[in-house]
Write a structure and sequence with these properties.
Blueprint lengths: L2 H15 L14 E3 L4 H5 L1 E2 L6 E4 L7 H5 L9 H10 L9 E10 L5 E6 L4 E9 L2 E7 L19 E6 L4 E9 L8 H5 L2 E3 L1 H36 L2 H20 L2 H5 L10 H22 L2 H4 L1 H27 L8 H31 L5 H18 L18 H76 L1 H34 L7 E4 H10 L2 H6 L3 E7 L4 E4 L1 H18 L5 E13 L2 E12 L19 H5 L8 H11 L3 E7 L3 E9 L12 H8 L23 E5 L3 H10 L5 E5 L2 H11 L3 E5 L7 H10 L8 E5 L4 H9 L4 E4 L4 H24 L1 H4 L12 H15 L8 H8 L3 H12 L3 H19 L4 H7 L5 H12 L3 H5 L4
Parallel strand pairs: 1-4, 12-14, 18-19, 18-20, 20-21, 21-22
Antiparallel strand pairs: 2-10, 3-4, 4-9, 5-8, 5-10, 6-7, 6-9, 11-13, 14-15, 15-17, 16-17
Helix pairs in contact: 6-7, 6-14, 7-9, 7-14, 9-11, 11-12, 12-13, 13-14, 14-15, 14-22, 15-20, 16-18, 18-20, 23-24, 29-30
């Protein structure tokens, strides 16, 4: 089929469809009457397409004088107009120029101003004003705003003003011309209106209002979602922001606002490059946004590849489109066949995308993406608006037409997309919050497990310590009894029994916790006087309190109270609280146990409760650990006051209180003390109980009560300082008693019960050896060891560390802290004594080295970093101070102590421990060795040297010199030896 046959067939089809289209058919009306009586005047608007006669100007340059000539008028026909309708624009041959004639009859009594608009790039209006004289008005949407006769923008159709004389007939001629190469089509002919100015401005204001609303919405949405992208770094809001901005630019460009505001001398709307760029921009970001909005990469990966393929076609097509226009000399010179091929390809590429825009959201919706609903509704709204609002859309096949805002579909689409994005972001935020909550819960659980592991590890360490310390005493005293039964039987048996009770109590606590977890710890209530029972328990703690000079007070109100109580559990509760209070209260402190009967009204019924309060004036509990003090394996005391424990006492106490249907609370203030309050219900359901023997209670409480202080009491040893002094720092009096029993008579023992006291005693006493536990109150053994080794008063003292921590890391930590030996509990008596003896021997070797003093006088210029022993620096410091005061014969030990930072007694004991020499002898020898150096130099006389080295008379100097070196000063001056 040839081109002509195709054109004829297309024309025939269009003629058949024409009765069903929205185009008006040409009538035979020749004159348009403008009357004040018709409905058109009331609306202020006339449609004059039925009154037009047209002529197709193939030359595109006929002068108006020729067209307006009477001889030319027969060439204006309705057929030409019909031909333009049928084949105009993209429906057939490209008609670039049409002359139209319109005859108007005014029924008004005065001249009337009108505004006429055509849909064409250039509109020339010629009004006859005389023979071959015409008034010329120009407009058209391709013309710059500055060149138009009237710069209106309604419907993108600029107007030309026209004055119709009163009661007169006026024939005017229009030349409609498209200079871009796009043919004049049906819209060029039928989109003609003649307005009264008031009606035009009313419509124009309405149009501008809706345009401003639409552009404002687009810009606000674009800015808002750009901000969202900047905060959340999600590409859906970013692409949507660009999409909304593109719609705003399209509206502003098509309505002429960009020309009016920014480009008054440039016909922007007719620049096909601008149009292509704007619409390509719109489609590109529409498809990019849709891809992520519909979650194609995750929900529909196969369709996502197809979608991206069409997006690529869109990009490539736009680039080719622009290139062909520019390479062909621009749109105005472009070959029409090439132009329409490009248009066809673009339409072919977008039709599948339009179909995908409906199909893919449905598939995404099926996959569970609820946001696809808004996408579907938005696309349908835009298509619906396109169908019913444009009479020429789809060749006018849709007969229904509503006066909707032209960009209402785009506006609704953007608003629906914004709602969908908000819903998506809310969902994502909720999912993110849920994920964060889950991650936080997981992290909290991991931290809890990690803390629990730490607590358990600490618990095992502490429980080992709790076991090893009594075992040390039991095994050690058993050995003592075996070796010397007559001496140690009674005392050893008592220590073994007491520490056995401690072990049994510890085991019972652990078993009770296990039974509590298994729900196998029953209650055994008796009905008796609870006040008397509590008094018995408190009396058992008096010895513990007296040992620390703590005042233990017990207050009750009333004095007697018969009720149901479980003796075993009540004893465990009160014992744990009382022992903790005594443990954490300093000497000369006060511990108060207050028991009262409290009555309250609950639901209009009187409820009686027993309230037990245990108050101390100890250091208090920090607020940050208050919620955790009842956790198993957690030892608040160890972390904050130096006291250790198994970490199960308070946890067990709380569980026991809950079993008795009571409550336990705690209040504490740092530096003032702590109060534990136990509230138990008062009931009278159990059978009467039997009086418990006080001796039984004391026996049961022996696990809590330590032995009297045996640290520094009579031990049958001489307390004289002529014996080597051993300072024992140990918080368990039984261990102190045991070590006292195994030390040979040649040692003198001093003891302290915590690291803080041990540090003070060591600095004051300067013992020969220190034996210290590691886990102690106030200050642990490692910290005490570090401080002692860093203090030059005590840095020389050997330290033996005792601990239940037997792992290699703990041993290395102890040695790094400065410990000279490390023994694990339970230790062997022989091993401890061997360690003491070996350290004593090493100290004797060190004394021999310093007693010789050769390293000082033979290497006087050696640097401290060259010293091989920590005490070398101390000796050099002493030597330097003495040398700087050689000329002072009255320089004393007290002055030396002041300059080195020690008291006279401390300096003397330290120096004696290092050298086993009197300090006065050391000062004398330093003077003599310096004197020999001066004499051997030969520059000074003997008398001058004696005076310079602090000797008051020459005879004393000579005698001392000969005793030290075996020669006289004169012989030394002349090189004798």
């Amino acid at each position: 089929m040839g081109k002509k046959q195709s054109t004829a067939l297309l024309a025939g089809v269009m003629l058949m469809l024409l009765p069903f289209t929205g185009f008006p058919q040409p009538g035979e009306k020749a004159v348009l009457t403008l009357s004040p009586d018709g409905p058109e005047f009331q609306s202020g608007r006339y449609y004059f397409h039925d009154y037009l006669y047209a002529f197709i100007d193939s030359t595109e340059n006929r002068p108006v004088e020729e067209v307006a000539a009477d001889s030319f008028q027969q060439r204006f026909t309705k057929d030409e107009l019909w031909r333009t309708i049928t084949f105009g624009g993209d429906m057939g041959p490209n008609i670039q120029c049409i002359w139209a004639r319109l005859t108007l009859v005014s029924a008004f009594d005065d001249d009337q101003q009108w505004l006429v608009n055509f849909f064409a790039e250039e509109v020339d209006l010629y009004i006859p004003r005389g023979p071959n004289s015409f008034e010329h008005q120009r407009s058209g949407y391709s013309m710059p705003v500055s060149e138009r006769a009237f710069g209106g923008s309604y419907g993108s159709l600029p107007c030309v003003p026209l004055t119709v004389p009163a009661r007169d007939t006026l024939t005017v001629f229009f030349r409609l011309k498209n200079i871009s190469g796009m043919g004049l089509g049906p819209r060029s002919v039928f989109a003609q209106n003649i307005f009264k100015p008031r009606a035009y401005f009313k419509v124009d204001r309405r149009q501008r209002f809706f345009d401003a609303m639409a552009i404002g919405i687009m810009l606000a949405v674009a800015f808002y979602h750009l901000v969202i992208f900047m905060y959340q770094r999600r590409y859906v809001p970013l692409f949507f922001s660009f999409l909304a901005l593109g719609i705003a630019l399209i509206i502003a460009a098509y309505r002429g606002y960009l020309e009016e505001v920014f480009f008054p001398s440039y016909h922007l709307r007719n620049d096909i490059l601008v149009v292509i760029i704007l619409w390509s921009y719109f489609y590109l970001f529409h498809y990019l946004f849709s891809r992520l909005y519909l979650r194609l990469p995750t929900l529909l990966p196969a369709w996502d590849k197809i979608w991206l393929g069409f997006v690529l076609i869109e990009i490539v097509g736009s680039v080719i489109y622009i290139y062909m226009i520019l390479s062909d000399g621009g749109l105005y010179k472009m070959n029409q066949d090439a132009f329409w091929k490009i248009v066809g390809y673009r339409l072919l590429s977008r039709i599948p995308l339009l179909l995908l825009s409906i199909l893919v959201p449905i598939l995404s919706l099926i996959k569970g993406n609820r946001a696809a609903w808004t996408y579907l509704i938005a696309m349908l709204a835009m298509i619906f608006q396109l169908f019913i609002n444009d009479p020429n859309a789809f060749w006018g096949l849709v007969p229904i037409r509503l006066e909707l805002y032209e960009y209402s579909g785009h506006t609704i689409m953007v608003l629906l997309f914004a709602m969908g994005i908000a819903s998506q972001l809310k969902t994502l935020q909720e999912e993110k919050f849920a994920a964060e909550q889950a991650e936080q819960a997981e992290r909290a659980e991991a931290n809890r497990i990690r803390e629990l592991d730490v607590f358990k590890s600490r618990f095992y360490t502490n429980i080992t310590h709790q076991f090893r310390t009594p075992l040390t005493i039991i095994l050690g005293m058993a050995g003592q009894i075996q070796a010397q039964p007559s001496t140690w039987y009674n005392k050893g048996a008592r220590l073994i029994r007491s520490n056995g009770r401690r072990l049994l109590h510890l085991v019972d606590q652990i078993l009770n916790l296990s039974k509590l977890e298994a729900g196998q710890l029953p209650t055994r209530f008796v009905h008796d006087d609870v006040m008397r029972y509590l008094k018995y328990i408190v009396e058992s703690f008096h010895s513990s309190a007296e040992q620390k000079n703590i005042k233990l007070e017990f207050e009750t109100e009333p004095k007697a109270l018969v009720m149901d109580y479980d003796p075993d559990k009540l004893m465990d509760i009160l014992s744990n609280l009382a022992s903790n209070a005594i443990k954490f209260t300093q000497e000369e402190g006060v511990v108060t146990l207050n028991v009262t009967r409290h009555t309250s009204d609950v639901a209009r019924e009187a409820t009686e409760r027993l309230v037990i309060s245990v108050t101390d004036n100890g250091p208090g509990i920090p607020e940050e650990i208050m919620p955790r003090i009842f956790d198993r394996f957690y030892q608040a005391g160890q972390d904050h006051s130096g006291e250790g424990g198994a970490g199960i006492g308070l946890a067990l106490t709380q569980e026991l209180v809950h079993i008795l249907k009571g409550e336990i609370t705690v209040k504490s203030e740092l530096g003032k003390g702590t109060t534990f309050t136990v509230t138990l219900p008062i009931t009278h359901n159990a059978t009467a109980g039997h009086d418990l023997d006080r001796s039984i209670i004391r026996e049961m409480m022996s696990a809590f009560a330590p032995l009297p202080d045996a640290a520094n009491g009579p031990d049958g040893h001489s307390a004289g300082r002529e014996k080597p002094t051993v300072l024992l720092v140990e918080d368990n009096p039984d261990v102190v008693e045991y070590i006292r029993s195994i030390l040979p008579l040649r040692f003198h023992l001093e003891a302290e019960y915590n690291g803080k006291q041990g540090l003070a005693k060591a600095c004051k006493l300067i013992p020969d050896i220190i034996i210290s536990d590691i886990m102690m109150p106030e200050m642990d053994g490692l910290e005490m060891c570090r401080l002692l080794k860093a203090d030059k008063r005590t840095s020389h003292i050997p330290i033996i560390l005792l601990t239940a921590k037997v792992d290699m890391a703990s041993k290395i930590e102890g040695l790094q802290a400065g410990g000279d030996a490390y023994l694990a509990k339970p230790f062997d008596k022989t091993e401890l004594l061997v360690r003491i003896n070996k350290l004593t021997e090493m100290r004797a070797q060190l004394q021999e080295r310093y007693r010789d003093l050769g390293f000082l006088f033979q290497n006087t210029n050696s640097r401290p970093e060259q010293d091989t022993h920590p005490e070398d620096h101390f000796m050099r410091e002493l030597h330097a101070i003495i040398e700087s005061n050689l000329a002072d014969p009255d320089f004393s030990i007290g002055q030396l102590g002041e300059q080195i930072g020690m008291s006279r007694a401390t300096l003397y004991r330290k120096f004696k421990a290092i050298t086993n020499l009197p300090l006065s002898d050391f000062i004398r020898r330093v003077r003599l060795h310096k004197a020999r150096q001066l004499l051997e130099s030969g520059s000074l006389k003997v008398t001058e040297v004696a005076m310079d080295t602090g000797f008051k008379n020459l005879s004393t100097f000579s005698r001392s010199f000969r005793e030290e070196f075996g020669i006289s000063p004169s012989e030394a001056r002349h090189g004798g030896s």
